[in-house]
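Query form — protein ADP-ribosylation factor

QUESTION: What is the three-dimensional structure of this chain?
INPUT:
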Amino acid sequence: MDIKSIFVIALGLESWWPRKTYYHGTHAVIVVMDCTDRARITLIKDELFRLLRHEDRQHFVILVFPNKQDIKDAKTLTEITDALSLRCIKTHDWRIQACCALNGYTLYDGLGWTAQQEVEKAKTVTVSNICNLELPGDLQTIDPTWDL
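ANSWER: The structure tokens for ADP-ribosylation factor are given below.
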């Protein structure tokens, strides 16, 4: 996966984002949030849903990393899922993955899921595109059991 195809929401930078440039061709949106910062969760939700409404939005996946899960007063995954209204998102695959950036706790799990979603999407697109091609001569037959 090309690193330029991942979009990260960074609060505080919105005023100088060239949104059209960032949104076009985005394959994944990764939201990294401080799960102890209860005041900013509404801002995160607003920015996420603004992105989902954007005209250039395509079928990208959404990964939410609630960071600082090691801190006592951290919001739970259920609280964050509810506060961000993630269950309302029906047009994109999403995952919420608890993490702790200090020790790397579950970061690879979340990034692995994101990469796997892209691989699965690429397989689907490849198979559907190949099945619709007009192929020359001896390539006319495509066996659907072939591993593409």
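ADDITIONAL NOTE: The chain has one domain: 3-139.
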